[in-house]
Design a protein that fits this description.
2 domains; mainly alpha
């Protein structure tokens, strides 16, 4: 009896041991034309194993790259795409630079600060008022999700004024959505998803 622990390591386990054995076999085929035909057949089989990925633009290109990867880049064939090198797969991805600086209101996030800045630059007063209404309701919702305590509208309005450096203010008689409406919508959606 042959155990999996005694077998060769599978490079791409999603294709299984039989595909891996086929790839190892076509490396040994000496006739180049025969090797190309065998490689094309393996690509067809690999494509049939993943029919849900056929809509991806570079699906075939990905299959050919995977074939080369499974052969440990030893396969010498006439592929319709440039043959990748081993170094391209071993290369580490570049480090993502994070924006520096701390946030005074972490529960709002950096995007909300950018949105407030964008609202200060709007010239159309009607659009600005509508955007401020949306921003303040979202600020209240974010505060409630972070803190879960009730929050007064005045706190949100003061925070908006501070973030915008006094450029955005809300009318004194303005009212935000109720806390139960902001958080309640979220609960209703969860219940609907469960059904």
């Amino acid at each position: 009896m042959e155990y999996s622990t005694g077998r060769n390591h599978l490079i791409l386990p999603e294709y299984g041991r039989n595909i891996q054995k086929m790839v190892e076999h076509i490396i040994t085929i000496e006739d180049r034309e025969e090797r190309n035909k065998a490689a094309q057949e393996i690509i067809n089989i690999m494509g049939r194993m993943n029919p849900h990925l056929r809509d991806i633009n570079d699906f075939k290109h990905k299959l050919w790259d995977q074939l080369m990867l499974m052969s440990d880049f030893k396969l010498d064939i006439d592929a319709p795409y440039p043959t990748p090198t081993k170094e391209t797969f071993e290369e580490k991805p570049r480090r993502i630079e994070y924006t520096s600086g701390s946030l005074k209101y972490r529960y709002l996030g950096r995007i909300m600060e950018k949105l407030v800045r964008a609202a200060t630059e709007l010239e159309n007063e009607e659009e600005k008022a509508e955007l401020v209404k949306i921003i303040t309701n979202h600020m209240k919702k974010s505060y409630l999700l972070w803190n879960r305590d009730a929050v007064e509208d005045k706190v949100i309005f003061d925070t908006l004024k501070e973030i915008s450096n006094g450029k955005l203010e809300v009318e004194k008689d303005a009212k935000l959505s109720e806390a139960r409406d902001l958080i309640g919508m979220r609960r209703k959606k969860k219940k609907e998803k469960r059904k």
